[in-house]
Amino acid sequence: MTCKEKILSEDFQDILTSYFVEGDQKTETDRYCAIPISDNLWSVYYDRSYLPELSFADYNYRFVTEIYGLMDVSFPEVAGGGFDPQPLVHSGITAVQREPLSLTGRNVVIGFADTGIDYRNPVFRRPDGSSRILAVWDQTIQDGTPPEGFWYGSEYTREQINEALRQENPLTLVPTEDEIGHGTATAAAAAGSALNDGLGFIGAAPDAELVMVKLKQAKEFIREFYMLPRDVPAYEANDIALAVKYINSFLIPYARPVVTCLGVGRSFGAHQGTSALDRYLSDVSLDFNRVVVVAGGNEGNTGHHFFGNVEGSDPVSVELRVEEQTKGFMVEVWGNIPNYFNMVIRSPGGEEVPTISSRVKGRWEYRFVYDKTLLQVDYQLNDQITGTEVAVLRFEDPSPGIWTLQFRQENRNDEGFFHMWLPIRQFVEGRVEFLQPSPETTLTSPSYATAVLTVSAYNSRNNSFYINSGQGFGPQGKIKPELAAPGVDISTVEGMLRGRAVVGSATGTSMAAGLASGACALILQWAVGRGNYSDINGVGVKNYLIRGAAQDAAYRYPSPQWGYGRLDMEGTFDWIAGI
User: Fold this and answer.
1) 574/569 Cα distance (integer angstroms)
2) CB-side neighbour CA atoms (13 Å) of 134
3) Under a CB-based contact definition with an 8 Å cutoff, are residues 281 and 287 in contact?
4) What is the 3-state secondary structure (H, E, C) of 12-27?
5) Whole-prediction pTM value?
6) Which residues contact 363 (CB under 8 A, 6 or more apart)?
7) What is the strand order of the sheet 41-47 is part of?
8) Is the dihedral of CA 14, 16, 454, 213 positive or negative?
9) Is the peptide bond before 338 cis (omega within 30 degrees of 0)?
10) H/E element holding 164?
11) Which residues contact 78 (CB under 8 A, 6 or more apart)?
């Protein structure tokens, strides 16, 4: 089999790892194929017949394929509605787009790893009709030419896109589309062209160049492992990491910086910025002329996070409500060093499993007699990266009702902390939620990656926090998010009608990330394009935005909801100017 065939095959497992030493370029044997992403990160595709059955017990936690979903945006039921510049004005973007700064993102690239882009839409074209898109890598189309060194998917360059736009039916030459609309909406908010001199529409960085990676769907056996609902978009960490590498290949040092915008996330993981993807994104952000912006997710109001504090020998009971039509779900439990816990699980029918101790590494399985539920518990006492205890509970065919999980410390008599996370809401068929959830520490990964800019969302019309937005801080107190950006009723495009853009609105943290990405492009234009700070990196851009953030006297900063404050580009340049 070729490397491309292994990447696409259901018979090969995708692993994102820093442990791979053979070769300095593509490495390929009958058992595996490996693609280098960075000096210490590889995307490996390994023959499943040589591997144990996929489980958290038989693999180190970090080697189980990570699945990410869209940080969904919601559109009004009625399309259209016209352009509303208010969020751009309120975040200070309009002020710096005008003279004397006249920042529009020129000579800056904004890249997206998302659902694709409608390249035909006027908001991605110049006044002469040519495209502002440098390239599209569609990972889902396999009959074209992939980017050099990436082995799968099809790449469409700006020259090809411009040629397609001259055709009556552009899709005959460049067949990539955005069937979902998420990528198109985010890209338009970040960098949509000025239509009718900005009266019809304008994005945050209307002259930036664009790169889009349309992510391919996760393999079916991975979806089955996570018990995902059918047809829900789901993406693997390997494809996201490769997308980020591809986007950053368009960097021209000291001349064309790059912003990467990610509107995907997951609820699982340590929430400490320690996964392979987290660390790679931090490395990218620390390199000069590059910024990574991450949407904080929309999990703050889902009831999918529980924080527990076990005092001494007293147990803590956690109640989990499972509604009808829930075919299966996972729960992750992360402890806090040096504590470790045992647990007892009780079904809605009152059947109780024996005490499960974290001292025994491996898989523990129990089939309930009266509830007909299969429970699998994978325990690792010491996660290799964080050193903390982690347990993954997998419920197959769970009975509806209230499940009770009781935790007790095994080793100490003082306080012991633990966190529990359910999947992001669209990854559960039916409704599952904690009865006493905590809305904090609900930012989705990779939000906790150290050097990236993480944004939550708020309503700029009344300065209220968006109720569904994810919130910080990290379990160890890491300050995330850094900023809140407008994310409610953000003007974007919802398609075309007779060749014209249909302008409407969308809500969600992906919209906040889009605006923040455009804002970063404006800073990079000023810093790199105009020679004011030529070797600036993502941390430098982030610190400029933090120092200029708008704050209200009613809140204490940094805040789990607001970070250091609201995005305020005018405030940032006032700080730079010493005003």
Assistant:
1) 9
2) 22
3) no
4) EEEEEECCCCCCCCCE
5) 0.95
6) 55, 57, 58, 376, 377, 378
7) 12-17, 41-47, 32-38, 27-28
8) negative
9) yes
10) helix 158-165
11) none
Q: Are 485 and 457 in contact (CB under 8 A)?
A: yes
511 to 149, 422, 516, 517: CA distances (angstroms): 32, 24, 9, 10
3-state helix, strand, coil split of the chain in percent (to 5) is: 20, 30, 50
Which helix (DSSP H) or strand (DSSP E) does residue 245 occupy?
Answer: helix 237-248
Query: DSSP letters of 34-49?
Result: EEEEETTEEEEEEEGG
d(CA 524, CA 205): 11
List the chain pLDDT tens, one digit each, 579 residues. 899 999 999 999 999 998 765 544 445 578 899 999 998 899 999 999 999 888 887 787 888 999 999 998 877 765 667 899 999 999 999 999 999 999 999 999 999 999 999 999 999 999 999 999 999 999 999 999 999 999 999 999 999 999 999 999 999 999 999 999 999 999 999 999 999 999 999 999 999 999 999 999 999 999 999 999 999 999 999 999 999 999 999 999 999 999 999 999 999 999 999 999 999 999 999 999 999 999 999 999 999 999 998 887 788 999 999 998 899 999 999 988 677 778 899 999 999 988 877 666 678 889 998 888 999 998 876 565 665 778 899 999 999 999 999 998 877 667 788 999 999 999 999 999 999 999 999 999 999 999 999 999 999 999 999 999 999 999 989 999 999 999 999 999 988 888 888 999 999 999 999 999 999 999 999 999 999 999 999 999 999 999 999 999 989 999 999 999 999 999 999 999 987
Beta strands in 199-238 (DSSP E): 209-214, 235-236
Residue where the block lists tokens 């940094």: 558
Pairing of strands 390-396, 374-380: antiparallel
User: What CA–CA distance (Å, rounded) separates 207 from 130?
Assistant: 13
Crossing angle of helices 569-577/538-548, nearest 10°?
Answer: 90
483 in Cβ contact with 295 (< 8 Å): no
Q: Quote the pLDDT of residue 24.
A: 41
Find all residues with CB under 8 Å of 402, minimum gap 6, and list them.
319, 320, 321, 322, 348, 435
- For the chain, which domains are there? 3-51 (no CATH), 86-115+172-300+445-550 (3.40.50.200), 305-434 (2.60.120.1290)
Tokens 């014209």 belong to residue: 500
Instruction: Kindly tell me the burial class for residue 136, based on how many C-beta atoms sit within 10 Å of its own C-beta (0-12, 13-18, 19 or more).
Output: buried
**Residue appearing with tokens 């996929």:** 54
Q: Which string of b and e fits 19-34 if b means at least 16 CB within 10 Å?
A: ebeeeeeebbeeebbb
- Kindly state the DSSP code that residue 552 receives in the 8-state scheme: -
Phi, psi (deg, nearest 5) at residue 94: -60, -40
Strands (E) in 149-239, as ranges, are 154-157, 209-214, 235-236
- The residue assigned the tokens 């509970």 is 393
The length of the chain, given as a count of residues? 579
Q: What pLDDT was estimated at residue 25?
A: 44
String of b and e for 386-414 (b: at least 16 CB within 10 Å)?
Answer: bebbbbbbbbeebbbeebbbbbbbeeeee
